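Troubleshooting log. The previous structure file for this entry was overwritten by mistake, so regenerating from the original sequence record. Sequence copied from the archived sheet and checked twice against the printout by T.R.
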Amino acid sequence: MKKTSLLAVVLLLSGCSFSAVEMVDQATIQKYDLSDPENDGVISARDACPDTFSGANINNNGCAQETVEKIRRELMINFDSGSAEVKSKYYSEIKDLANFLNQYPTVSVTIEGHTSIVGDARYNKKLSLQRADAIKLLLVNKYGIKNSRVKAIGYGEEKPLLKGDSEYVHAKNRRIVAEIFGEKKIKDLKWTIYSVDQGKK
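Regenerated output below.
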């Protein structure tokens, strides 16, 4: 009887299947760089601007946020009666305008020529264009600005700066005018306890 029971147990155990579990001692591989060498709060794995300067106010991608500042330049030059000759005392102002155009190479400028009401209207129209052209030639030939970036137009006596018939008014109206705008991007700085004080300086 005992032999029969033992045989039954052996047969029962032999009918069971055992699966061995293999234990592998392997370190987890980190796929992404979670370091933050810039200490800007953005991990290297998603830092699109790894060279952001210290103290910049950054966005979620680690890039410095920017503010666009509009910069305006204006030029006004007066002329003698019946003349389109540019006096040398104005050269420094024209050079400043040329420097601004070089600083902002996508900006173009329109030179507006004007006259006083003295004389024939058709003559004044032609004279005003000659005055605008004189400034354009200086910008192009003397200061190297591309011809396509400078436009000259003559308005004659159509747009006076001042109204009246005095010599003072006539002198002010014999002029050219140029006005241009440029955009400058400024990196925003991160707020600190000194930010308010710095803004008051």
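The chain has a mean pLDDT of 79. Archived copy saved in two places this time.
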